[in-house]
Design brief:
The structure is a single chain. The chain is mainly α. It contains four helices and no strands. The chain has one domain. Helix content is 65%, strand content 0%.
Length: 130
């Protein structure tokens, strides 16, 4: 049985729509890139944005996971800004660590699920990019 390739040279998705190992790895990186970008400069949405812009036309799974990670990171950035503003009335001091821990935990869960080939959906997110 021969494997056919598309013009870009990438093998087609496996039967049943399961993503290839390469797609699963890129999906995982889309979620983990937000943690790396946050650690390096505080702009956690840059990692998923870059992966989404590069890979969205090459793989539906990677595009979907990068878009999902991007939407979640935008929501987390908004939540961090609101929490920072609320720090002036003490409430934000409690919200800032909760948002940061939630971002870390959900990003790791999403990365693990994407590596399994599951199209993960973040809870508590705003889907601005469709």
């Amino acid at each position: 049985m021969s494997t056919t390739f598309d013009p870009v040279g990438k093998p087609p998705e496996k039967p049943g729509g399961t993503p290839s190992q390469d797609d699963r790895t890129w999906g995982m990186l889309a979620h983990l890139s937000s943690l790396v970008a946050a650690a390096l400069g505080g702009m956690s949405f840059l990692g998923p944005l870059i992966i989404w812009l590069i890979k969205k036309d090459q793989s539906a799974f990677v595009g979907d996971q990068a878009k999902e990670a991007l939407n979640f990171q935008i929501a987390c950035t908004i939540a961090m800004l609101v929490s920072f503003a609320l720090a002036f009335v003490i409430v934000g001091f409690f919200l800032l660590p909760l948002v940061a821990i939630g971002n870390l935990v959900f990003s790791i869960i999403a990365a693990v699920e994407a590596n399994k080939g599951v199209a993960y959906r973040y809870p508590y997110t705003i889907r601005l990019i469709n």
